[in-house]
Design a protein that fits this description.
It contains 12 helices and 16 strands. With 371 residues, it is of the alpha/beta class. Helix 2 crosses helix 3 and helix 5 crosses helix 6. The longest helix is centred in the first third of the chain and has 18 residues. The model has no long low-confidence stretch (mean pLDDT 87).
Length: 371
């Protein structure tokens, strides 16, 4: 069943559907400022000349479909400018776009993105761990594709789940080169004849990383070149709403069947690691107001060299300094700055406990109320 969301008055946004039609016309008919993220896998304009064969003379199933063919670079550039303009109109002020391509088109797309007013955040190299060999032996094996991540405009407050991507990468900061396999085996969708349903089906792992890293549960993800629906499938599993646009009936049929079999993960499983900056702000004075710390109570530095007393207004007084938990800590240590939350400890049952535990308790209560 289609989920409809009202956007800007009477306009309606058709969520969790695959729309049949031209992507530019369709996007121009959707309400502006309504989409959180766009993932676009546009035609690559491969300009293939003739058939490609393996050393055993078997033919390679290359991308030679009509949708990937343009009369000239000028025609492709015009198409690119038009769909990028339609996409930018749909993005919320804090929205962002990912575009994937190969060396055939990504440089032209990148220039068009900048010309259209997008602000490029990163280019990401998807290095394929199992690329197709170069059968003719006349060039390097084409083992990667490039993705461009851009915000709608310079200064836009786009979503970036830094800690979640770091967690996905075994606790190490996520880099801009991603080593992931192409679709093979059970992941590769087949049509009724047993052939590949789509020649450029993207792996689920790629979309998982994109959607976890740059959206939140409940966000709306649009894919204007939906194909067999990898974007929609991953968005649905991760608790995001999706909109797909696809003009080819055969691809829509495969995508619809695929999406019907997808189940959303439970709410607890959808939660991801968040950065400290993304967590709600809790003033130190709130701990005093709630009686979690009392005026006159002593706090101790993490190195046990200094102590200060809590005042009724949420400031501290220690030796010759009065001020916030951060100011007093910095002064006592002779440092330019100090994170008072981790620096100061209070006594509980004879043990020193960081005051940050009290802040986390309040944050947990706030999260519980929101849920």
């Amino acid at each position: 069943m289609t989920k409809m969301t009202k956007i800007e008055g009477s306009a309606m946004l058709p969520l969790n559907t695959i729309i049949s039609g031209d992507c530019i016309e369709t996007m121009n008919g959707l309400p502006e400022n309504s989409i959180d993220l766009i993932f676009a896998d546009p035609p690559y304009n491969l300009q293939l000349k003739g058939e490609l064969h393996r050393p055993d003379n078997s033919q390679v199933d290359a991308v030679d479909d009509a949708w990937d063919q343009f009369d000239s670079f000028a025609a492709y550039d015009k198409f690119t400018r038009e769909w990028l303009a339609a996409a930018r109109r749909l993005l919320k002020p804090g929205g962002a776009i990912w575009v994937i391509g190969s060396y055939h088109n990504i440089f032209r797309v990148g220039a068009a993105l900048q010309d259209a007013g997008y602000w490029i955040l990163n280019d990401v190299v998807w290095r394929k761990s199992n690329p197709m060999p170069n059968f003719r032996g006349k060039r390097l094996t084409n083992a990667h594709e490039t993705m461009i991540w851009a915000s709608k405009q310079e200064g836009g407050k786009y979503t970036f789940n830094y800690e979640a991507l770091k967690a996905l990468n075994d606790g190490v900061q996520m880099r801009s080169d991603w080593v992931l396999p192409i679709c093979t085996g059970h992941e590769r969708l087949k049509d009724e004849a047993g052939d590949k349903a789509h020649p450029t089906q993207k792996p689920q792992s790629l979309l998982h990383r994109v959607i976890v890293g740059s959206t939140n549960p409940g966000d709306v993800v649009l894919d204007p070149f939906f194909g067999t629906g990898t974007t929609g499938a991953v968005a649905k599993m991760l608790g995001r709403d999706y909109i797909g646009i696809e003009r080819e009936a055969a691809y829509r049929s495969v995508a619809e069947k695929r999406l019907k079999a997808i189940r959303k993960f439970d709410r607890e499983a959808l939660q991801v690691s968040t950065s400290k900056r993304a967590e709600p702000r809790v003033p130190f004075g709130q701990l005093v107001e709630r009686g979690m710390l009392l005026p006159g109570e002593e706090l101790y530095s993490v190195n046990q060299r200094h102590k200060a007393k809590v005042r009724a207004d949420g400031t501290l007084v220690g030796d010759d300094i009065k001020g916030s938990i951060h100011q007093v800590g910095a002064h006592l240590e002779g440092a330019p700055s100090c994170n008072g939350w981790t620096y100061w400890h209070f006594k509980k049952d004879g043990k020193r406990v960081p005051i940050d535990l009290l802040r986390q308790q309040i944050r947990a209560e706030m999260a519980e109320r929101l849920n």
